[in-house]
Amino acid sequence: MKTQEEKTKVVTAAVIERDGKVLVARRKPELVAGGMWEFPGGKLEEGEEPRRGLERELEEELGVRAVAGERICSVPFEGPITSFELIVFRTKLMSYDFRLTDHDLILWLAPAEMDESVFSKPDRPVVRLLVGRPRPPAGTKAEEPA
Q: What is the CATH number of domain 4-132?
């Protein structure tokens, strides 16, 4: 049985858009979910605010500075090993000098080019959201801050 602490873990992810495409990253084969695609981000440190944690993770994992903006969605995930809440933010890159640490490849894909089956399970609802709907209108729940 999972403890309450495990159920309340928070992980963040970035939807970074440029010219109608979104940045996706493939995890290195030797890592958990290796070979799967994801929206870059990562776990929060103790007491860390989600937007700041996402910006830190992008700098650590991709070597880029970024500013996390509006919250797009939140995805609860329960797996056999861990459970967490994935909070996804629309994010703007402030630099493009990528240095990959946890990934072996990054691509810019149009949402219609995304194959949900090659994404990690927690990221699949985000793919569906991007493929199926335009940017949420102002004032919708998806825009409310975390």
A: 3.90.79.10
